[in-house]
């Protein structure tokens, strides 16, 4: 078993490496050298015997590898080697205004309601001012890879029809109206920041993952007519996605506390 270096107030101290983490490292090597994408692993009893560990330790290691996106557990089949992460383009050329990309999106809901304080501040609005809010899922190869929440001030898209009956059809109609009006504006520029986070309960449900799953949080501000005209907070599955920004993509690196993190 290996050791890890842990810093303390006076220097460094050596701490034992957890058994499951050491096994996780061994399993990664085995996955890379012995198994291909989609291949089913031996059962837990055989793996425990092969690596000389308790089944509880093995489960911890397998749980960690599933969390990292290296393994997928499928009911009735077993534990399967996952496919490599999909590249999700987020450069200016592939994005533009929300709704103009070529990827498949599915509208979840849409409403006009007071925005959270952090969103109002990012949009330059008074606290609790109502904004149009559109929630969508980003699809790739038939799989949900991300959840997006779009915030647009009512003054930017003022002609959204009033819809009093709450339904999926009404939500879709409101969302499409907001997106169409945004696309009529001349986009002056965009700014993006990305950080690592964890999926809260609502996000996890949309992403079809358990709460606490690692996610990549991409915040985009859209500029038009001399102001921030829209804000999106996109949450991508870190186990299956890697964000690709291309030659023109610029990512800001800032402390997490300084970023807008409202996507619920």
Automatic annotation (TrEMBL):
<dbReference type="Pfam" id="PF07702">
    <property type="entry name" value="UTRA"/>
</dbReference>
<dbReference type="InterPro" id="IPR011663">
    <property type="entry name" value="UTRA"/>
</dbReference>
<dbReference type="InterPro" id="IPR050679">
    <property type="entry name" value="Bact_HTH_transcr_reg"/>
</dbReference>
<dbReference type="InterPro" id="IPR000524">
    <property type="entry name" value="Tscrpt_reg_HTH_GntR"/>
</dbReference>
<dbReference type="InterPro" id="IPR036390">
    <property type="entry name" value="WH_DNA-bd_sf"/>
</dbReference>
<protein>
    <submittedName>
        <fullName>GntR family transcriptional regulator</fullName>
    </submittedName>
</protein>
<feature type="domain" description="HTH gntR-type">
    <location>
        <begin position="17"/>
        <end position="84"/>
    </location>
</feature>
<dbReference type="InterPro" id="IPR036388">
    <property type="entry name" value="WH-like_DNA-bd_sf"/>
</dbReference>
<dbReference type="Pfam" id="PF00392">
    <property type="entry name" value="GntR"/>
</dbReference>
<keyword id="KW-0238">DNA-binding</keyword>
<keyword id="KW-0804">Transcription</keyword>
<dbReference type="InterPro" id="IPR028978">
    <property type="entry name" value="Chorismate_lyase_/UTRA_dom_sf"/>
</dbReference>
<keyword id="KW-0805">Transcription regulation</keyword>
């Amino acid at each position: 078993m290996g050791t890890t270096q842990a810093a303390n107030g006076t220097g460094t101290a050596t701490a034992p490496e957890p058994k499951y983490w050491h096994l996780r490292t061994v399993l990664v090597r085995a996955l890379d050298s012995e198994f291909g994408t989609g291949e089913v692993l031996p059962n837990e009893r055989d793996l425990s015997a092969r690596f000389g560990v308790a089944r509880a330790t093995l489960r911890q290691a397998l749980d960690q590898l599933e969390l990292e996106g290296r393994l997928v557990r499928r009911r009735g089949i077993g534990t399967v080697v996952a496919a490599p992460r999909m590249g999700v383009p987020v450069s200016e050329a592939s994005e533009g205004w929300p709704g103009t990309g070529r990827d498949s999106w599915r509208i979840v809901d849409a409403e006009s309601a007071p925005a959270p304080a952090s969103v109002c501040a990012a949009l330059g609005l008074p606290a609790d001012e109502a904004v149009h809010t559109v929630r969508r899922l980003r699809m790739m190869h038939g799989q949900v890879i991300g959840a997006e929440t779009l915030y647009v001030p009512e003054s930017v898209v003022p002609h959204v029809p009033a819809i009093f009956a709450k339904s999926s059809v009404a939500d879709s109609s409101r969302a499409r109206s907001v997106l169409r009006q945004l696309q009529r504006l001349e986009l002056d520029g965009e700014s993006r920041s990305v950080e690592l986070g964890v999926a809260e309960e609502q996000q996890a449900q949309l992403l079809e993952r358990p709460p606490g799953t690692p996610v990549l949080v991409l915040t985009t501000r859209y500029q038009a007519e001399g102001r921030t005209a829209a804000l999106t907070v996109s949450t991508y599955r870190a186990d299956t996605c890697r964000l690709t920004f291309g030659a023109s993509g610029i990512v800001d690196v800032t402390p997490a506390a300084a970023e807008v993190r409202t996507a619920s």
